[in-house]
């Protein structure tokens, strides 16, 4: 019997997250890299009002565990 080893595709290592901008409350989306386990922090400008949003999220086993978007 042939043994077949399959690895999960890393093409699914990103997830699109929709959230409201803390400044203008418009719904915006962002691609999050969830291939690295643990917590990530970064600052992203809102695509509507261009203000800086502090993004914080954590992932585990290729799944998004929590997500926060707040004004700086
Ligand atoms: Zn905004």
Provide a descriptive summary of the structure in words.
- With 72 residues, this protein is an all-beta fold.
- The protein has one domain (14-71).
- The chain is built from no helices and 5 strands.
- The strands form 2 sheets. Strands 3-4-5 form a 3-stranded antiparallel beta sheet, with no helix packed on it. A two-stranded antiparallel ribbon has the order 1-2.
- The relative contact order is 0.25.
- The mean pLDDT is 88.
- The protein binds zinc ion.
Outline:
The chain is mostly beta strands.
The fraction of residues assigned to DSSP E strands is: over 45%
Secondary-structure-based class equals mainly beta
Residue stretches low in confidence (pLDDT < 50, at least 5 long) are none
| Count of individual helical segments | 0
Oligomeric composition of the shown chains: single chain
| Rg calc | 16 Å
Strand order of the largest sheet: 3-4-5
Helix content: under 10%
Mean pLDDT comes to 88
Instruction: Give the beta-strand count.
Output: 5
Give the end-to-end Cα distance, rounded to a whole number of Å: 58 Å
Heteromolecules bound: zinc ion
Order of helices and strands: EEEEE
Which sheet architecture does the biggest sheet show? 3 strands, antiparallel
Q: State the shape.
A: elongated
The tally of domains stands at 1
